[in-house]
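Morning run. Coffee first, then this:
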Amino acid sequence: NGRIRQTGSGREVYARPATREVVDFLGIRNLFAVNMIQSSARETTFWCGELKKEFVLPAAISPHQSPAAGTGRTIGIRPENAVISKPEAAVHWGDNFLDGTVEGVFMKGASHTVLVRPAGSSRVIEVEVADCSFKKFNPVKGMKITILLRAEHFFLLGK
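And here it is:
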């Protein structure tokens, strides 16, 4: 309809889309309904019922709003920012790990899209894996894997 949905540099809009319309335009599918549990100056904790997981994210994951406790919102992460991880990987602040099962693998030239269903969830998370990493992990359908969703790569959508 020709209406501007978000302004900013291309990189900023790509990394931190502000609305569902922008997310849809960019083709991002890793979106999750969450409720804000608590917030401090450093971090905000969300509960995601879809993934049965608590996420700890930087308090300022989006310059567009600061949610109040109990507020329902949507968080998202781009497929290239989700990472297949070794279970014994060192844990740092903001590392959000999910164990799951590979549901499908699709080659996209120099990368692959790996569809992962987190344990206990009906949702599927898209993980874009560079060819060199794909060869290292060699994920196949039915394989149990761990994915890492780093806090700094999430974005929070507006109301």
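Helices lie at 10-15, 20-26, 131-137. Good start to the day.
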